[in-house]
Every structure is written in structure tokens, then in C-alpha cells.
Amino acid sequence: MEWTSRSSEELIRACVQTGETAAWQEFVRRFRPVVAATVMRTSRRHGAHSPALLDDLIQETFLKLCSNDCRILRDFVPQSADAAYAFMKTVASSVAQDYFRTGMAVKRGAGRHEAPLDPNVESTAGYDALPDAEREILIHEIDETLKTVVEPATRIRDRGIFWLYYRQGMTARAISRIAGVDLTPKGVESVLQRLIGQVRAILVQQRAQKSKGKSSASSF
Hints:
The chain is built from nine helices and no strands. By secondary structure, the protein is mainly alpha-helical.
């Protein structure tokens, strides 16, 4: 099902009722910008500018939305087309304010792996430095490779886990809290390690074959 064209109310209902991974991916993609902007404004008012802290607070906002079987989302009753965005701002602001009131810090990076996928990119952060067109080509190449290594029975879930980690920056702990994933943080890490290893091995092999082909062509 194509979730990008669905209303925010329909999207939230699908997330809490079905737990479909694709719906959660769209949920994060759609609401992450407003959550991030709210967290950034609140943090700056408290003199905090650390990217690490901002990432933590963004993830904590999504964790709060998913906690207690998504109780907050289940109780949400939209009054207008833009109500969902206003609601996300409220939750994000509350999470950030609570952090600065209590001084409680969340350990950053739990469940993250920094192993790059493509041998030509030195780190996961290096993807963001690529030109847009080149990055999209690489993402497409990785996704096509990913389709060949995921198990049919868990294809939707595992691809969702993979891209929530790589494109949305979510930790294994945050992903494990999403309804429908049904894995512990260690289970999510295991899926990621397996997929990363398989995808990287195929990409390395493909690069080697391309390099060999170029060398052979240049010898003529």
C-alpha cells in the first residue's frame, strides 16, 4: 500500500492498529522534520546545540509516541487537517522540556553500527556528503541488493528495519519499540548485522568485478 498519499489520520490509525512497517516508515519520514525543528528550537532556548543531544531527543520523542502500545497516538483525536503536526510539536516540546528540567541524559548511539555498506564510502556519515544524484543511485543499488538477501517471510520487516536505521537514523532500541517489529534491541541488531554483512559482501564483489572489467578493457 502507498502510504505517502494517505492522510495523517489514516497513517496514524494504520500504525497503531496494524503495525505495518511501511506505515511506520512513512510516519517517521513525514513527522521527523517537525519533531526535529521543535527539539532544535527548545534546545537552543536552553543554550544546547549538540547534534548528539538533538538526535537523542528526536529519538526519545518517537519512543514516547510508541510507548505503552502507542497509547498517546491511540488517544489522539484530530480536529483539523494540520492537527497531527501540531500534536507532534507538542509531544516533541514536552520531551525536550522534560530533559532540560530533569537533566536526564539518554545514552547516545545504543544499538548503532557505523560499518559502511559501500567500500567506496568510508563511513555511514559519508553518504550524506555524496551529491544527491549519486546518493540516490547508491541507495537504489543497495535496496536492489537488499531485496536479494532478505528472507521472504520477513522481507517487509527486515527491509523496514534496515532503512529505518540507515535513512532515518533510528537506533536498534528505538526500532525495537515500534509496533509490529516484535524484536528485542539485540534482535534488531542481529538483523542489521546480518543484512549489512550480506549487502556489503555483494557490493564489494560487484565493485571488484567492475574494476576487473575496466582493467581488461584498458589492456586492449
